[in-house]
């Protein structure tokens, strides 16, 4: 039972100094939950002294000694600073020199309470310090509360002196406005408030008159029952800026809900009755004004997994097992797509025997946050991959450049001492081959620099695609590996495009050179086909083929299919940039062990 119960359990043996004080303790046993809560692996602390594994063990000694000395159960809340966690800890001594700790993680509860306290203090602070007078009347028009600014504005010493005044009997409010308020209309009006005409309504320390802008709003619950009148008064006597502040306050909760996307709801978990701000309805995908019993416990717009989580939470709340929930929920919108809403729910008053489980809920849309997080993760992964590839590229460059340079220098020296004509011809061939390789390396690097700088230039003209393919095959035939046949596809139709001939040649040549590297026998075919107003030019080989996973990144920069093959890993990336800049598409079809087909498209004609 101890091993698997959902509460941390640790058993310790105490050791004493010469004066009989606890100086150290030894971990005898613990359960799985203790290791999870304390974030330790396996039984890493069992069989060890606290002085060896806990740098702050001295701070724990006084509490342990109190348990041993008093032989009573100690119940404390403990803050583990190094892990920033709060625990509820129960300590007792089952036998001599042994102490048992049972603890549960209360971090979320402490955090939720702190957040709730901050919110309540903030709202009360706003209510008391906002520079407008606020009066709250009950549904019958009797004054039940007012803020400090209202006391100051009307020269009052104590709010108790005016509580109970009926707004419908206040003769200083224009009669027309009072009649409209009785009809539960929201009204806004300006008036001159003359203190000389109070006529015993209340006692004020002020004299003279106030120029007021007043707004009266009716407040309703979720069942559309009138619960309060809210009267807001702005003193425009001193400064016109105050008028702008009352307009700001009038829309305060709307701005909080709509602009900050923060919603608030208050309801009874048993009856499901309550009320919510418009923004709360929006954040859970419901129509504004929908009765809460049709939402609470239904949650029809929640993702099925999140709906199950919410229903389980409400069931646990009613059973008294849980008091709070903080989770990110997926909400289905009208068009079928999902957005993210962060939901914070807290039990404020638990009295099920009286039919009351009061709960408050704060929610806000975090879709943009989730999207930003996803983009940041993707960008981070991409940056790390790019950095890794660039590092590999730079490490490879020294080898790729040094290899042809060594060959050129070495065989140039040998050429000076060669006697036989065949030997000289062989050395010259090696030097020429490495010259071409070095030039290609430098050309790829220069092209990459131009692409990065946005200066990759194109010279457009009419290009005969058939002739271009034949020219490429002819020019590269001398480099064909033994056992491989390089040919052009038969019966090619006439085809003209308007493009940069040299850039197209560069793409096709790169395809063919890549085929040389990975085709030891068989055939390499250059060809094209016409369809839907464009030409698809391709190079097909019977080589080793490409793994499906590598096909997805083959056109990325610094990617090489084979680390042992010569090249920078830039050629296909440059080809992709060329094709995209002439308005085409590029791709590869390949099957491992059977060969590959590299292709790109280009619009026909001019």
UniProtKB/TrEMBL annotation:
Keywords: Kinase, Phosphoprotein, Transferase, Two-component regulatory system. Its EC number is 2.7.13.3. It comes from the Bacteria. GO terms for molecular function: phosphorelay sensor kinase activity. InterPro entries: HATPase_C_sf, HATPase_dom, His_kinase_dom, HisK_dim/P_dom, HisK_dim/P_sf, PAC, PAS, PAS-assoc_C. Residues 119-160 form the PAS domain. It is an enzyme of class 2 (transferase). This is histidine kinase.
